[in-house]
Amino acid sequence: MSHNSNLLHRRERLLGPNMTTFYSDPVHIVRGEGAWLWDADGNRYLDCYNNVPHVGHAHPKVVEAISAQAATLNTHTRYLHEGILDYAERLTGTMEHDLDTMIMVCTGSEANDIALRMGRAMTGKTGIICTDNTYHGNTDLVSHLSAKKTPIGGAVDWVKKVPSPDTLAPLGGSAEAQAQAFADEIQTAIDTLEAEGHGFGTLILCPFFANEGFPDLPSGFLDPTVEVVRRAGGIIIADEVQPGFGRTGRHFWGHQRIGLAPDIVTMGKPMGNGHPVAAVVTRPEIMAEFRNRFGYFNTFGGNPVSAAAAMAVLDVLAEESLVENARDTGDYALELLRQLDHPMIADVRGAGLFLGVEFARDGDTKRAAPFCAQLVDEMRNRGVLLHSVGRYYHGIKIRPPMCFDRAQADLLVETMDAALKALPV
Ligand code: PMP
């Protein structure tokens, strides 16, 4: 039995079946540095997908912050400690002034679970609206929103899913028409929730529509939606798990990029550079309503080590000008990707270091999915790690650590060019 199949066998026996792995031949990673990864045989890979090690794999400053704090104190969160407070001040300083209170948790799923419960607490209504091609996490409540997983008991009628915006097949033609069409879909969902007796409480969206395939949408796209939600007295959650922390290059948050003023912001993945830390940020009156009603406590959320890791990430982002790097290197990589010549490329788009290539076969995106899966494997075999995205997994998602540089962008695009040429169309 080969080394990898032995690990896969143990994984299945010890951790259970049906666990996600990437690539037909999964990679056994043992070390990382910056945007590079090494497998157990010493092969090097360029990590073009991983938004968890946001400021780079094993960043020495984050490692040092974690180990110094772990060597001093780590405990549950019922003691007084400055770490979480200093971080809350720093984090909320990156947002609009009324979003200035925070709960720290361990995963994006928990953050969204809390945010949805905040929405229910504020409105007294259980109805939730999300898009039909999203993922917001895996608690019992949040899993009802996920497009690609079926919760026990099947779909619930207090969640209504609206068609997600699409670059290739827009809901309503022009950007303005699509913005209105999206808002109209939300209005219909609100009316249905009200008519069915659940009432409409909360709209949750990734402001970059990351899992939906990140269609190119102008700032102001959500204005008609906000109007509809406000008229109905609803709460808006911006899930920043993917576009947050400067990923899109010109804004620190995805909601700022699209010009959305949310009531609640959730975040996770990149926040601790791999250390499990996530958060919910909201206005004080929403926080008070939630805390008074539920008295929330999270044993690990915002413990001294988590707060130190998260603070170090903000320090490195600033010290190394990584948001500016995402803008500059992202623009450079996007330009290179646009020069790729292949009959199945239907669109190349993105912002900062969040880029994508969408494929279609004879104009049909669904039929491009098998090709995309082959391309992902071909890239892996050539030492570049990325993965697929979109309704049918018919596009490539490129989302490397924020320290990604131009030489790495060159390597990514040269490798993709060679992989595209090597694959039968
Ligand atoms: N929201 C979004 C948009 C996500 O993509 C994810 C994870 N892929 C989550 C929430 C859940 O985060 P976690 O896995 O940390 O629970």
Automatic annotation (TrEMBL):
One of its GO terms (molecular function) is transaminase activity. Coiled coil: none annotated. Keywords: Aminotransferase, Pyridoxal phosphate, Transferase. Signal peptide: none annotated. Pfam families: Aminotran_3. Belongs to the class-III pyridoxal-phosphate-dependent aminotransferase family. This is Aspartate aminotransferase family protein. It comes from Aliiroseovarius zhejiangensis.
